[in-house]
Specification:
Strand content: 5-15%
Mean pLDDT: 96
Radius of gyration: 12 Å
Structural class: mainly alpha
Helix content: 25-40%
Distance between the termini: 28 Å
Order of helices and strands: HEHHEHEEH
Length: 101
DNA sequence: CTCATGACTTTTT
DNA sequence: AAAAAAGCCATGA
């Protein structure tokens, strides 16, 4: 499987996000000095190690969950299992749980 | 090289 | 407030 440098950079940042915290596609892109938020989503989709790389902790900039390779329902279940409260598809206290690089 | 596409975001209706 | 349009950029064909 081939992983591009961009994808690898995304994963390297993502593993820094602690359990019970979240980050956004835009934040990752910004941390990489770019605005490729869509490409970040693509990178997550191609995540080679779903367990090592916590791609379920990456959400939309407005606090909504967004998509997930194994289904949005699974993403929400994983987050809630980590203590993240989700109501009506949005993260509660989003600004507080957000991890800042 | 050019073209279309998407786990997105911001601006404008 | 809610929906539509426009903008963004890495990736694969």
């Amino acid at each position: 499987m081939s992983i591009t440098p961009f994808q690898q950079a995304c994963y390297d940042l993502l593993v820094q996000v602690p359990t019970g915290r979240v980050t956004t596609y835009a934040d990752i892109a910004r941390a990489l000095g770019s605005k490729a938020y869509r490409a970040v989503g693509s990178a997550m989709k191609h995540n080679p190690h779903p367990i090592i790389v916590p791609c379920h902790r990456v959400v939309n900039s407005d606090g909504r969950l967004g998509q997930y390779a194994f289904g949005a329902a699974q993403k929400q279940a994983l987050l809630m299992a980590e203590g993240v409260q989700v109501v009506d598809g949005k993260i509660v206290e989003f600004d507080r749980l957000r991890f800042y690089f």
